Sequence to fold (435 residues):
Amino acid sequence: MNVSYHEPATWQEAHALLERHGDDATVLAGGTAFTLLLRQGLIRPGHVVALRRIAGASAIDADAHGGVSIGALATHTAVQRSDRITAAWPELADAVAKVATVRVRNQATLGGSVAHADPASDAPVMLCALAAQVVVTTADAGSRRVPIEELFVDTFTTTLGPAELIRSIEIPARPAGAAAVYRKYTLRSADDYACVSVGALADLGGGVFGGLRLFLGGVGPTPMRARSVERALAGTRVDARAIADAAALARDDVDPQSDTRGSAAYKREMARVWTERALRALAGMPIS
Amino acid sequence: MKLAHVSTIAAPIERVWVVVMDVPRAAACVPGVAAVTPLGPDRFQGSLLVQIGPVRLVLDGEIAVIARDDGAHTASLRADAKDSRLGGTVRATMEIALSERAGGCELRIASDVQIGGRIGEFGQPVIQRKADSLLAQFARCLAERAA
Fold:
């Protein structure tokens, strides 16, 4: 098998390579998912376009909208340790710290995790809860900002076009009174993919749920938005009974499949349990 | 791997049956199918492109109608295909049954699929979800063609 390995120095060169080689090219970011697919024999690219040499691709900076911009090539460890992230969104640092093992976190990038679109990955679920926007660039030097939940369309499938690249991920400025949380339930070992994970964001000012965004991982083809739970709690006083009743609705907001991490029925029930735990954590209540 | 799919189609059973048993026409309703050509009576050749994230499978093969009962609206099909680039095979038998329902008919497809080689690395949950999605689109397209 002949493979040509490219390390473009600029985004423009990377786009040009992807355009030139079309379906025969695969993008390489941190390489953790790529290596698994290659070793399984599921991909056989003729050209690998590695993004690691592009200057500034892993920068974590303030963005133009008062939030934080995370370069696509920033590793999970870099996000976990970034002063800017831990000051603005420590809950995101907490979520990425739950990914696999330190060796994986040192290598796997945030942009790679989003582009790979594994529905059981941690970062995409939390980024959905935080209403992140993905900055996507195109071969003709254009760019678009996409709400992250709109990028995911199916298992391992996004709306990214063949020569498009994720440049960065932007997280809005933290609103006053915002509370956020990430909870992950692993069934087999601590470093496993989630059986169920929950990312949530809300404004609990005045003891009332406002602006709740709640997403679940591992229980559908994409991060699943628990709209029934969000609707049930909108404008509701923070209360253990209301939380338990709303969390029960999460069962029907998800679309799990039976696999080695549990049957579909078990995952629906765990979606309820872990939604309730995440909401109680958001409200500062102990686990019931 | 056994898969079962049920769809309701808002079109008369006889019209849906005609489309279903016209293999090249029915195959055109499956997203990713390239031209299907006859090899003989009830035997056809064609290819199916399936993309799951970065993985592209091009399944080239044959499909044969091994039994059909136009009165009962049932048929059995056998498909045999391989992806020569990644190295993998798919063999499937499909039992197709149409039955009358208020406002149209119900399509049931019971498949027994054997997957060999690299393609099996995906695991059953991913393959099943993709099959569900393809067959749901197939049923919607049949409804349009038969309407």
